[in-house]
Amino acid sequence: MNRRDALIRVIDSLHAEIAALQANDITALETATAMKLQGIEAVAANDDLPLDAELEALAREAQRLNETARIYVNLMAANVRRRIDQLAGGGGLPAYRPALAATPQRMAHAAYR
Fold first, then answer.
1. pLDDT of residue 112
2. How does pLDDT run across 34-66, given as a tens digit for each residue?
3. For the whole model, what pTM was predicted?
4. Mean per-residue pLDDT for 2-8?
5. Hey, which of 12, 13, 17, 56 has its CA 20 to 30 A from 34?
6. Where are the domains of the chain?
């Protein structure tokens, strides 16, 4: 597989990964992630030549899609964290509070869990 085909495979797998995240389909997510990793390995195996304009555009598209998938994962994790806090009696805490997360008391408490 050449680098162009491998990048297209990564892009296709990232589309599948995002769709699986949106649908909460764990099986599809595992399949898409495995396909993405295989594509990344194929890209790495063929990185001996400089990128031309087409390959550079494909690489940027893959980076953009990967960032989108990362955002979905972070939002899902923040929502789970918020829900766990609610269930634990923490009330309606916002999904992300960097100031609270980095307080010494919170860090010490997390260390002893």
1. 43
2. 999 999 999 999 888 788 999 999 999 999 999
3. 0.72
4. 93
5. 56
6. 3-88
**Rounded Cα gap, residues 93 and 102, in angstroms:** 15
Complete DSSP assignment for 53-94: HHHHHHHHHHHHHHHHHHHHHHHHHHHHHHHHHHHTT--S--
Could you give the CA distance from residue 12 to residue 35 in angstroms, rounded to a whole number?
9
- C-alpha closest to that of 68 among 100, 30, 20, 102: 20
Per the CB < 8 A criterion, the answer to whether 16 and 27 are in contact is no
Total number of residues shown for the chain: 113
Residue whose entry in the numeric block shows the structure tokens 């598209």: 61
